[in-house]
Amino acid sequence: MNVRSEIEAAHAKRGRGRPLVDDKRRIILDAAIRVFGERGFHGTSVPDIAAAAGVGTGTLYRYFEHKEGLVNEVFRDAKLRLRAAMLDNAPALDPNDAASSKRWFTELWRRLGGFAMTEPAAFRFLEMQDHVEYLDHESRELELSLLGPLFFAGKQILDSKQAKKRGAAPPGARVDTLIALLWGAFVGLVKASRLGYLVLDDEQIKLAGEAAWQLIATAR
Q1: Three-class SS of the chain
Q2: Which among 4, 24, 31, 151 has most CB atoms closer than 10 A?
């Protein structure tokens, strides 16, 4: 079973992987993530979302007090799914074992690719929009709960004895710089696929992941 099938099967068991909420609320959230992802926060109005959800604007306001509250709930709803897809039952990492480090990186890259392919609207909204100005404290804390483990694991890998032996990163390289570089590369792949410049499938995601690992493993 490939990664797309695995995630689709898991979503089928859990109601497409989404937290259980009132049906109309769910419809609004799903419509909002599509519209926010396409138009951005400032280019989207509450009536736009209501129309996409097939409900009246007054009905939407009964569920969400204002646009900022709605976009934060959309963000948290999608970020929880991304965090689960990437970190739930993630493989153990031994940073001093080169094979273990590569397995850990390869598996997380595979999971990220699976999420991007099976949840395109969520990925587009989460990773192709600038959320900083409207995120509330709860949303920021949730963001850190995903980024924190990734930064910690990345630092372990770069600081490991194995990394030092193979000259894995340029002197003075910071883990946040390398993670941002890799993350940007992945987002670029997904955007190119969405725009029709390339066909992104499991095999291409795997090959891109191998190239990304080489950036960590052999950069000098």
Answers
A1: CCHHHHHHHHHHHCCCCCCCCCHHHHHHHHHHHHHHHHHCCCCCCHHHHHHHHCCCHHHHHHHCCCHHHHHHHHHHHHHHHHHHHHHCCCCCCCCCCHHHHHHHHHHHHHHHHHHHHHCHHHHHHHHCCCCHHHCCHHHHHHHHHHHHHHHHHHHHHHHCHHHHHHCCCCCCCCHHHHHHHHHHHHHHHHHHHHCCCCCCCHHHHHHHHHHHHHHHHHCC
A2: 31
